[in-house]
């Protein structure tokens, strides 16, 4: 068994089995763990992408719901960093049923990104680094104060 990632996210879906299929088709995630109950319903699953993992399961409490059950509301979005052509990735996600609401565009920090919703309304951002920029270059391009550890 591969080492567990130090950080992952967990998403609730009305139909976790359909979500798994979507994530495989749209984003090339790989199903690494599937736990089913006695009736064959998905109790828990894990899908890998690079060194990251997203956990997918059903709605299991009033506080763990799909955006589809909450009028489309989200409290988080998921970011995927790729090293392949983001425009091609966007076309693949669209063909799989993603609703692209921010088409691929170049960002001040050196990435080209797009944003989409999956069929149940979770928000995903996909980015590809196209230019390596310093904080000073990012600040100059954006007009924002940017600091941190490079």
Task: Describe the 3D structure.
With 150 residues, the protein is α/β, with parallel strands linked by helices. It has two domains: 1-57, Signal recognition particle alu RNA binding heterodimer, srp9/1, CATH 3.30.720; 97-144, Signal recognition particle alu RNA binding heterodimer, srp9/1 (2-Layer Sandwich), CATH 3.30.720.110. 20% of the residues lie in helices and 37% in strands. The protein has helices at 16-27, 86-95, 135-142, and strands at 9-13, 30-36, 42-49, 52-58, 77-82, 99-106, 111-117, 123-129. The strands form two sheets. Strands 1-4-3-2 form a four-stranded mixed sheet, with helices on one face. Strands 5-8-7-6 form a four-stranded mixed sheet, covered by helices on one side. Strand 2 (30-36) and strand 3 (42-49) form a beta hairpin. The longest helix has 12 residues, at 16-27. The two termini are 32 Å apart.
Q: How is this fold's topology laid out?
A:
Elements: E1 9-13, H1 16-27, E2 30-36, E3 42-49, E4 52-58, E5 77-82, H2 86-95, E6 99-106, E7 111-117, E8 123-129, H3 135-142
Parallel strand pairs: 1-4, 5-8
Antiparallel strand pairs: 2-3, 3-4, 6-7, 7-8
């Amino acid at each position: 068994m591969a080492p567990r990632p130090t950080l992952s996210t967990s998403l609730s879906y009305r139909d976790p089995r359909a979500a798994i299929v979507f994530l495989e088709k749209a984003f090339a995630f790989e199903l690494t763990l599937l736990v089913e109950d006695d009736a064959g319903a998905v109790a828990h699953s894990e899908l890998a992408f690079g060194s990251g993992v997203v956990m997918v399961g059903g709605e299991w409490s009033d506080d763990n719901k799909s955006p589809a059950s909450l009028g489309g509301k989200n409290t988080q979005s998921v970011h995927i960093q790729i090293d392949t052509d983001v425009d091609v990735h966007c076309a693949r996600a669209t063909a799989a049923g993603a609703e692209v609401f921010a088409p691929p565009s170049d960002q001040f920090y050196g990435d080209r990104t797009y944003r989409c919703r999956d069929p149940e309304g979770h928000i995903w951002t996909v980015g590809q680094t196209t230019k390596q920029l310093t904080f000073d270059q990012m600040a100059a391009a954006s007009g924002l104060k940017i600091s941190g550890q490079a």
